[in-house]
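[[Per-residue structure]]
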Amino acid sequence: MSVTTPDTDQSTQPMEVIRLPRRAFLGVDIGSISTKAAVIDAENNVLAASYLWTEGDPIGAVKRVLAEIEPQLDEAVEVVSVGTTGSARELIGAVLGAQVVKNEITAHAMGTLAYHPDCHTIFEIGGQDSKIIILRDGIPVDYAMNTLCAAGTGSFLSSQARRLNIPVEDFGDYALRSKRPSKIAGRCTVFAESDLVHKAQIGHSKEDIIAGLCNAIVGNYLNNVGKGKEIEAPVVFQGGVSKNVGVVKAFAEATGHEIGVDDNGHLMGAIGVAIIAREGGEEARFEFDVRDMNFETRGGECGGCPNDCELVYVMRDGEFIDGWGNRCAKGMERVKGEQARVGT
């Protein structure tokens, strides 16, 4: 009887495994004080993140966050969609070729609901502005923003930290040690500084003064940004100031609610707009070498009609890529034509 033996060489050959790139989504939140960026996957896991100061140069700040993010990503990760939010969202959207450009309210709401679907109230205090977002059944129904005065924001606390010669990162620990918080006039930065000096001169401890500053920032927020708003639990506190446990404690005492702080609360705008880009943006591979390109912003008045619109446009390596500010298409079409002639 003949016996046929299997070809052992073929049977032991390992099968070639083809791994598809892991799709990821980039969100950038570019503000006047800080620039935040986050890369998420399809399950909202944060794969990479960066938080740094804008320093008056939004394009430069974005290039720096890209340089920080790229080394954090595995080679198998491919960014396929980009979203921008924040005060410079239009500019940075043009620079990055973003598929989605959204306001901060929408971005923060989307990011928060992804991790806290039962949230009813969002407190957000950033470096130079603050906002409140009211959510009901997963939908933003009301909001308010304060962008006119630095009192009650992160820059307010930072300026007082310099005056007290204490790192602002240590404010929370000082505040928690306070036995009798000082009453600080927090409605105006100038008045607060004067009040702070007076309290120190008459013998108030730094712990009590700092606790008083935390109470002042909360009182300012609730009396201005939160005025007339129906604050319901669950409450989620976001922004850089949410890392200050003294302010978190002050919010809890003032509202009577437990205040939730997400570990990624300072990145929530970036995460939120990344989620929006994933759900609504057309996919196209994003190349990180955009940070090596030269970008320039230009502007001027249109002059084509009595509206005299103020035009702003962005050039990449000498070529027009986007612009805004005109009420009709005439002004920007003229700019495109002029730049085309210059290029030729």
